[in-house]
Amino acid sequence: MNFKMIKLYRRTSMVILVLLQLAFVSAIFYDVLNEFSVLVFIGAISFLGIFSLVKMAHESHEKPTKSYILILFVTFGALATFILNLKLNIGPVISASLVGFIATLIPGIFKNKNHQLIKEMPPAIYCGTFVGMTSANIGATYWFISLAGIVAGILYVLATNTFVRVGGKLGTVAFGGVAFVFLISLIIS
């Protein structure tokens, strides 16, 4: 991959993440329109987001090994959390925590194998847990969660080298997957 393509890839993924954050913050602002504290919160988040974007834009990081497998891991995390949350009534936080905890144990189980994919698996599954925490009012079907997991997986792969060491990336990616599939479901129905 040449330098121009890498630069375009990074900028595109940064723009997508910034737009997702703006959509998330706009949803909060739209929901609580007359609250001054929300306006202050949005201003602080915007400042921190711009600061992070400028600070992290020039860092170089390696590309994920197998993108399509990471998409499957995100989808698996979403479905596992969804099943525990809504079908077994464990609750969203405990479900996500349990799936995320089990995912973090995987590299320790395969510690003799120094394979890059095993190291990349836990964050991808954990990203999916945020998708699986989706409210039953938004998406209560396996199809919705699967599609949202796939979209979030694609966004996860695109955002692998952006906003490294910045909190909230996995949640933002999950929000993007769920919001996109919810928007498509509204358009179709």
UniProtKB/TrEMBL annotation:
Keywords: Membrane, Transmembrane, Transmembrane helix. The keyword Membrane applies. The keyword Transmembrane applies. The chain crosses the membrane at residues 12-30, 36-54, 66-84, 90-110, 140-158, 170-188. This is Uncharacterized protein. The lineage of its organism: Bacteria, Pseudomonadati, Bacteroidota, Flavobacteriia, Flavobacteriales.
